From TrEMBL:
GO terms for molecular function: thiosulfate dehydrogenase (quinone) activity. This is Thiosulfate dehydrogenase [quinone] large subunit. It comes from Paenibacillus amylolyticus. The lineage of its organism: Bacteria, Bacillati, Bacillota, Bacilli, Bacillales. It is a multi-pass membrane protein. Keywords: Membrane, Oxidoreductase, Transmembrane, Transmembrane helix. The chain crosses the membrane at residues 12-30, 89-115. One of its GO terms (cellular component) is membrane. It comes from the Bacteria. Its EC number is 1.8.5.2.
Length: 179
């Protein structure tokens, strides 16, 4: 039976479409990150505004997220001045190069949802939808990219001496000499 998920994960045509999608999304993240890194960026104003949206009868910002912003993000705004521009830039770079593609897409989702929870729709919802395709596709989304080499390298690193590697298994060879 045809499975769309399997098609995303294994098909060659899907691999090319995902590559175009990945580079497009990556370029969007990287340019936003770069302009914040070079032009300066302060999260405090936005964060205070988001806290203000957590009140009223039908608040845009959910109470638990409002509490997180008020108690953690606002007092540590300097951390977000740094991690948001860096995160956006690195996520963009990872997606463009196809390096740790799935992890980069997941971190991108974390940021999109943080912005959505804070009451900004903007391009976040459409990025979320596109990035879900990248995550479901898994390795196929990074095959035309550094993941083509990085993933097998990591697999080798973590599966050494496990699996079907026989070099550590003692065997008695034909010319085995006994004393
Ligand atoms: C449209 O949207 C929007 C924006 O945005 C454009 C915005 O700004 C903003 C404005 C935002 C603010 C004002 C801030 C708001 C802040 C909050 C709401 C506070 C809460 C926020 C959070 C909880 C989010 C925190 C952020 C996180 C978790 C992201 C952190 C991410 C990272 C640090 C980066 C992760 C990156 C990865 C995993 C990719 C990794 C890949 C690479 C780095 C590639 C590197 C490749 C190389 C260097 C090449 C060489 C490498 C090789 C060859 C590999 C070798 C391999 C080996 C195995 C050796 C809004 C509102 C918005 O609405």
């Amino acid at each position: 039976m045809f499975s769309f998920n399997q098609w995303l994960r294994e098909n060659k045509v899907a691999m090319w479409i995902l590559t175009v999608l990945r580079v497009y999304i990556g370029y969007d993240w990287m340019t936003h990150g770069w302009s914040k890194l070079t032009g300066g960026f302060q999260a405090s104003g936005f964060l205070a505004g988001a806290v203000g949206k957590a009140t009223g009868e039908n608040p845009t910002v959910q109470a638990w997220w409002g509490t997180f912003l008020e108690k953690f993000a606002v007092p540590n705004a300097g951390l977000f001045d740094f991690i948001i521009p860096l995160g956006e830039f690195l996520v963009g770079l990872g997606l463009i190069l196809g390096c740790f593609t799935t992890l980069a897409a997941l971190m991108a989702l974390v940021m999109n949802f943080a912005f959505l929870f804070s009451g900004t729709v903007s391009t976040n919802a459409q990025l979320v939808l596109m990035q879900i395709f990248l995550v479901v596709a898994g390795a196929n989304a990074g095959k035309i990219g550094l993941d083509h080499w990085v993933l097998p390298y990591l697999r080798g690193l973590f599966s050494r001496n496990k699996g079907n590697d026989t070099k550590d298994t003692p065997t008695i060879s034909a010319n085995h000499k006994t004393a």
